[in-house]
Amino acid sequence: MVSILKFAATMATGIILLCITSGCTAGTLITGASNAPSGVSYASGPGNKVISYQVVRFEDAVKATIRAAEALSLENQREDIKEDRAELQYADEQNQAVDIIIERRSATITTIEVYAGSFGPRGLTRLVLLQIIEELDQAGAHLEDWSD
């Protein structure tokens, strides 16, 4: 019983600190992005970096990221795609760069990190991540084969 109370207190403290450091917008992201068919997203840092764990293949996440950048009319600045890690950079018309790192965690788990720099707009990182998740959804890339 004591460990459950300790866990609850730790979680409550973490949520309060997250709201203080990110203006409570991170909670909105957690709710919105976790409604995807698969995957868990959370905000990390002072509010301009988001990381998402998705149940998708690495290759599908890379393709969805490229499609998301096209849908948002972002200009490709750099692409370094390897077997299990991709580093992409895009910019908007005002030269605000967005760095995206995609990493294979397993055959079916992929992380997607979107970062707009230390002082970049937090809304842009969240918008890019949500568009990537939308592209994954539209492609049917989430691995959900429950045929029993």
List the helices and strands and how they pair.
Blueprint: H1 2-22, H2 25-33, E1 40-44, E2 49-54, H3 58-71, E3 75-81, E4 85-91, E5 97-104, E6 110-115, H4 122-139
Antiparallel strand pairs: 1-2, 2-6, 3-4, 4-5, 5-6
What's the name of the CATH homologous superfamily? Sirohaem synthase, central domain
Radius of gyration: 16 Å
Helix count, DSSP H or I runs of 4 or more residues: 4
The level of helicity is 40-55%
The secondary structure category is alpha+beta
**What is the residue-averaged pLDDT?**
81
Low-confidence stretches: 26-36
Main beta-sheet annotation: 6 strands, antiparallel
Report the order of strands and helices. HHEEHEEEEH
Measured between the Cα atoms of the first and last residue, the distance is 37 Å
Task: Indicate the CATH class.
Answer: Alpha Beta
What is the molecular shape? globular
Main β-sheet, spatial strand arrangement: 1-2-6-5-4-3
